Amino acid sequence: MVSNHNTINNIDNNIKCTLHPNKDIVFFCLDCKLIPCCIQCTSSKGEHHGHKTDPLESTSNILSFMNNFKNDIYQKVIERIEINETILQESNDKYNEIQSQFDNNNNSLRKEIKKIHDIISIIELDIKRQLEKTFENNTLINTIITSSINNDNQILSTIINNKNNKNENENENENDRITTIEKLNEIIKFNDQQIYDNGEDFIIDRDTIKIIKQYQQSLIVLNNNNNIDNSNKLNEYDNQIIHFHNQIIDDIKNNLKSIYTLDNCRFKIEIDENNNEFFEWDNLKFYVYIEGDSFKFKENEGTAFKNNCNILSKLKNQLPSNVMLLDGFNQKLTPGILPDGVKSLYLGDIKQELIIGSIPNTVTRVSLLDGFNQKLTPGILPNGVEWLFFGDIKQELIIGSIPNTVTLVSLKDGFNQKLTPGILPDSVKWLYLGDIKQELMIGSIPNTVTLVSLEDGFNQILTPDILPEGVESLDLGDIKQELMIGSIPNTVKNVSLEDGFNQKLTPGILPDSVESLDLGDIKQELIIGSIPNTVTRVTLEDGFNQKLTPGILPDGFESLNLGDIKQELIIGSIPNTVKEVNVSTSFKHQIEPYVSKNVKIIKKNSEK
């Protein structure tokens, strides 16, 4: 007789293990929710070594895994696809935003580097003009000296060489070719002898007249002081030599390397109709301050200061109540720089340490954003602070870091500091926890806290006593660790399971102290016993999408609030103990058939 195993193989020869494609699936692992596995999976190096297994042909196991596949795994597969599509969409959106920012960065790079090029070109042109101006002056001096000397020399050379001026008769006889000094000697000798012999007057002939004129010309030239003027002009020459200050050039080179920073941008920068940069954060619109621009602060909006701002001291009385100091901000916050009047302060990775008095006493809300890297010694946060938000800060907290006036603390995704007992002061009443990275310990949360909100991504195990007695209200988002009996203390009266909550509510998880329960779009079905009998008020919020089979809502509760729930009610869903049903305008189903006639139904503030 052929076994079922062989029959399976004959029907489908492709029943291969996903992890080991050369091996057939032959077992169910009893220790791992009946996951199918092969021989290699159960081998000494396999993922299921030492686990209990059953053959693939086991009818009970096949039916069990099929029911599990149908009722649990298949729905999770659909949810995973939806989650993956959401993540993919977010990834594409982020990438498109990054691509857009990449283009903006390149445009900014070209513009800013062009500004530097333009400045250097202007400097080069200015130096050239200075050099050219000086050279032109030197050329003029040279021209004046050359012209003056050439003119004088032309006259004097004519005299020495006994040459005629060009405007005189160009015809020369042999006698004209002797030099002036020879001519002078000849005339003087001849006339001296003639006067001696005859006692007659000096004979003035053409040669004598020429000599007389040359004598006149000589005196004019010799008396004009041109040689002195030209000699003095030699001192007016300016032989410029350009020198470059290499140290300054090196400093400029080094400074040029620091004219930019590449920051991970947590904000999506947008441009408004007046060409001002802004981004949305914490339900506020923050305008990026740019020094020198015409800028009007708006009270109901925030102002963010970049790393190149050294302007706060000049804007003391102009700042709005919401101020953000962005990553790289490098002005020392001495007391008084931030004026009284600032109420909400957001600090990124600022570069100067804080001192007592840096933050004015008017500040009631402080957000320390991802990357904040300054020590919070006692007194840095003033006693006026009431709400405190922590991102992924880089310095550990110590007792006294948080003043006793703080009533609300929110530890955002990525917070990675230990919460040893005493860090959170006894003044804290409301605590919001995101995807923090350090595990909580008993005593991390003070007994004074009355409301705890575990937000989407919270990934710490809530062993008993982590949430202290004293907590009265508990909000649970898409937390990643399953709850256990004792996770929620017996003091909790109000529980809200927010959209995305994806943990099973087995009986006993919600303690008998719970009186009010709000249910959003939770992802796990409710079972009888999920809701304790002590609950007197239930709210099914918009998006609630679980079947309310009879018995889910326990006898004893009296008030039901209905939003836009996605599953129709069925007979018996609402127990007879209910006295009042509040129906939201978004509720799309009938209510009357499912409640007794004496139930008070309130629709849109009108009684029926």
TrEMBL record:
SUPFAM superfamilies tied to this protein: B-box zinc-binding domain, Tricorn protease domain 2
Ranges of residues in domain B box-type: 13-56
Lineage: Eukaryota, Amoebozoa, Evosea, Eumycetozoa, Dictyostelia
A Pfam family this chain is assigned to: FNIP
Protein name: B box-type domain-containing protein
Single GO molecular function: zinc ion binding
